């Protein structure tokens, strides 16, 4: 009597999980289909077309490039600001570093609307700044920086950084050499994970961007909101399809690298130092 | 070494600390003065919006924890062919922005949505609820599931399966094992994941914006005050209070769960 009971329970749980999966995936599939259908209301029988995708490309191309540009600029800044911060926090585990960590998380806890209003209230009168895409960039950096810091910090905290650095120092390596040859190669997984997160979040950020944008600085999500509100369902769907094409590879890459949770030491693989990922200094 | 912190510190002070102080001052600079900060409870409209916001957020938290708790523990405890694919699908919407989530809700429960088509075929009546609080709730649950499942799964991974085995061998029913062993073991994960669900649902704006401007939740009220009424002081005061509420929830959860908790989205 016990065994069949567990079997039924297994099936029930499986059915439930599949239902949850359907809840998440079905609307994505529907919207992709809608973006490729001649007339969604009439159904798939009206035929498939790329017309709506081209319409979006013609009308909203700029938003796609602006979002890509902001995401990359955001990545560059979060690398330059975030990696050194994570390093300092990893090296000095004291009350001060914990306080800094707390502070850094505040911009994520703050609703995007509040941060955007605060930025407008403070810098909104600086005309040239307010209307440039740099204004949006500032907001995105605030929001994504904590993710970069935490991602790098998580990797750095898992290794014995102090011993590695002392070893290098005893062999005569200066601070610069230690930072670029020891610290950066060791936290490359964290940098990679953080970078993917930063780019993904920046491309999708809406809460802040909706208030920070101007008619000339529309990002992809702002364009999406526009299209949802004023254009036919097929165009909104085609636009969403383009967005998915840009963001899903990033999300899949994030899933792939987060799976194996092993920390690699340089000593495991002496050649590691030769194929380090692009790090800030190569991107200047 | 502290010099390395300088760039980040300057950026943070110039673009976060100063603006937040400014926001606080602007909040008290309107026609009603500092009373604007009390408006969230004294103004009936704002107070109702606050209640609706907290209500939706609480419902979202409970639903997301229940759904992700069941699915997450199941996926971590039973490895079967297709498991990885299921996990990948369940966590894929992790970084979908609120506007897109809103659109997903419209695809399901909107005027041309799937639920409408199915209910019309079954009962003759078209069920459309996307453009209301129910639609918003659905969107927030959609948004919260991927993140919560990830937290639950990694917490379950650390849970010792021998405890469950022991309970079972002593004759505990699956239900008792869940209530007495699994749920207490996952409590910290539930607290921190729940806090994130709650905080994001309180502060989110994109989903409500896509669904309808008539949905009366606090972020929408702030937005209308700012754009339509041009009442910047009231918008600032309300958003400052909203930020404080969110921060408080996260801080409470952090001290309860004993780990770092942060919201996103």
Supply database-style keywords.
heterodimer; A: 284 residues; mainly alpha; 76% helix; disordered C terminus; B: 265 residues; 75% helix; globular
Task: Please explain how this structure is put together.
- By secondary structure, chain A is mainly alpha-helical.
- Chain A has helices at 2-36, 51-91, 95-109, 112-123, 127-130, 133-158, 161-170, 175-186, 188-204, 209-212, 220-230, 233-258, 280-283.
- Chain B is 75% helix and 0% strand.
- Chain B has twelve helices and no strands.
- Chain B has helices at 6-27, 39-42, 44-77, 83-91, 98-109, 114-123, 133-158, 161-169, 174-203, 206-211, 218-227, 232-257.
- Chain B is globular, with a radius of gyration of 22 Å.
> Uncertain segments of chain A of ≥5 residues (pLDDT<50)?
261-284
Q: Give the C-alpha Rg of chain B.
A: 22 Å
Alpha-beta content class of chain A:
mainly alpha
Structural class of chain B: mainly alpha
Topology:
The complex is a heterodimer of chains A (284) and B (265).
Chain A: H1 2-36, H2 51-91, H3 95-109, H4 112-123, H5 127-130, H6 133-158, H7 161-170, H8 175-186, H9 188-204, H10 209-212, H11 220-230, H12 233-258, H13 280-283
Helix pairs in contact in A: 1-12, 2-6, 2-9, 2-11, 2-12, 3-6, 6-9, 7-8, 9-12, 11-12
Chain B: H1 6-27, H2 39-42, H3 44-77, H4 83-91, H5 98-109, H6 114-123, H7 133-158, H8 161-169, H9 174-203, H10 206-211, H11 218-227, H12 232-257
Describe the structure concisely.
The complex is a heterodimer of chains A (284) and B (265). With 284 residues, chain A is mainly alpha-helical. Helices cover 76% and strands 0% of the residues of chain A.
């Amino acid at each position: 009597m016990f065994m069949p009971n567990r079997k039924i329970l297994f099936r029930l749980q499986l059915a439930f999980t599949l239902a949850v999966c359907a809840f998440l995936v079905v609307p994505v599939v529907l919207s992709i289909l809608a973006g490729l259908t001649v007339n969604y209301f009439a159904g798939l029988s009206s035929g498939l077309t790329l017309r709506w995708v081209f319409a979006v490309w013609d009308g909203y191309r700029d938003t796609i490039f602006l979002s890509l540009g902001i995401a990359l600029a955001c990545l560059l800044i979060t690398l330059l600001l975030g990696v050194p911060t994570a390093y300092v926090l990893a090296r000095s585990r004291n009350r001060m570093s914990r306080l800094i960590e707390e502070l850094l998380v505040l911009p994520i806890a703050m609703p995007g609307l509040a941060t955007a209003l605060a930025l407008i209230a403070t810098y909104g009168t600086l005309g040239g700044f307010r209307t440039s895409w740099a204004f949006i960039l500032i907001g995105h950096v605030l929001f994504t920086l904590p993710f970069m810091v935490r991602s790098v910090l998580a990797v750095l905290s898992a290794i014995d950084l102090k011993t590695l650095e002392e070893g290098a120092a005893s062999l005569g390596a200066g601070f610069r050499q230690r930072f670029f040859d020891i610290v950066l190669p060791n936290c490359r997984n964290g940098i990679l994970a953080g970078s993917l997160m930063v780019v993904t979040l920046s491309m999708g950020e809406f809460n802040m961007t909706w208030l920070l944008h101007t008619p000339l600085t529309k990002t992809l999500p702002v364009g999406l909101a526009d299209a949802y509100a004023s254009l036919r369902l097929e165009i909104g769907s085609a636009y969403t399809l383009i967005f998915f094409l840009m963001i899903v590879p990033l999300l899949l890459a994030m899933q792939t690298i987060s799976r194996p949770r092993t920390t690699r030491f340089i000593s495991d693989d002496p050649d590691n130092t030769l194929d380090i990922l692009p790090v800030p200094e190569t991107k200047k | 070494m502290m010099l390395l912190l300088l760039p980040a510190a300057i950026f943070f002070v110039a673009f976060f600390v100063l603006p937040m102080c400014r926001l606080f001052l602007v909040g008290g600079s309107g026609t009603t003065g500092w009373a604007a900060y009390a408006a969230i409870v004294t103004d009936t409209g704002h107070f109702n919006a606050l209640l609706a916001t907290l209500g939706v957020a609480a419902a979202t938290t409970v639903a997301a924890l229940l759904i992700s708790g069941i699915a997450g523990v199941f996926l971590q405890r039973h490895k079967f062919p297709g498991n990885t694919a299921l996990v990948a699908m369940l966590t894929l919407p992790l970084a979908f922005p609120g506007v897109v989530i809103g659109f997903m809700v419209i695809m399901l429960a909107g005027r041309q949505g799937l639920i409408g088509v199915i209910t019309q075929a079954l009962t003759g009546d078209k069920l459309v609820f996307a453009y209301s609080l129910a639609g918003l709730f659905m969107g927030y649950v959609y948004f919260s599931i991927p993140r919560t499942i990830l937290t639950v799964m990694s917490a379950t991974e650390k849970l010792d399966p021998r405890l469950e085995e022991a309970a079972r061998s002593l004759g505990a029913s699956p239900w008792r094992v869940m209530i007495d062993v699994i749920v207490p073991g996952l409590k910290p994960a539930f607290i921190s994941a729940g806090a994130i669900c709650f905080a994001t649902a309180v502060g989110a704006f994109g989903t409500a914006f896509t669904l309808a401007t008539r949905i009366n939740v606090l972020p929408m009220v702030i937005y209308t005050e700012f754009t339509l009424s041009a009442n910047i002081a009231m918008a600032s005061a309300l958003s400052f209070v909203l930020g404080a509420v969110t921060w408080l929830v996260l801080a409470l959860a952090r001290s309860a769960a004993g780990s770092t908790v942060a919201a996103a989205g």
